Amino acid sequence: MSKRYSRPAFPDRFNDYIAKIKHIDTKLKTLNARYPFLKRIFFLVEPDREVAPDQQYKLAIQVLLDGRAPMSNTNLKCQIESEICKVFSNANIFIKDVSCVYEDEMTLYELNFYKVWDKDYITNRYGFD
């Protein structure tokens, strides 16, 4: 219950744009099945306010991966980043950046700007399962 009140809020129009992405629920389930070590998705939305219907949001995405960074993970990270970009691409959302980081790579400084995004934002509001 506390999750409902403590999670960060994104602009309503931004949530509407995300919810209108075709087959987003299926895409997210496929991503979770393919990469079970995906822990969290963080968004940095600009601007962090409502925009006019003819304006775009800029979105930077950080994908938190479970565990510590192995020495050679560049190809895997690039693959995940590419797939995440495809999932969240939308005419109303410009994907500014996508990066994957392991738990030992994400900083407290970044958490000042990035907000956790959860599928529940659209699941609860739009009735996705």
Write structural notes for this entry.
The protein is α+β, with helices and mostly antiparallel strands. It has 6 helices and 4 strands; from the N terminus they run αααββαβαβα. The protein has one domain: 2-Layer Sandwich (Beta Polymerase, domain 2). 39% of the residues lie in helices and 24% in strands. It has a 4-stranded mixed β-sheet. The protein is globular. The relative contact order is 0.24. The model is unreliable at 123-129 (pLDDT under 50).
Per-chain topology:
Layout: H1 2-6, H2 12-19, H3 24-34, E1 38-46, E2 57-65, H4 74-88, E3 93-102, H5 108-111, E4 115-117, H6 120-126
Parallel strand pairs: 2-3
Antiparallel strand pairs: 1-2, 1-4
Mean pLDDT: 85
The neighbouring-strand order within the major sheet is: 3-2-1-4
Order of helices and strands: HHHEEHEHEH
CATH class wording: Alpha Beta
Distance between the termini: 19 Å
Structural class, from helix and strand content? alpha+beta
Largest sheet: 4 strands, mixed
Count of structural domains? 1
Strand content: 15-25%
Radius of gyration: 15 Å
> What are the low-pLDDT stretches, counting only 5+ consecutive residues below 50?
123-129
Spatial shape: globular
Helix content range? 25-40%
**Counted beta strands:** 4
From the coordinates shown, what is the CATH architecture?
Answer: 2-Layer Sandwich
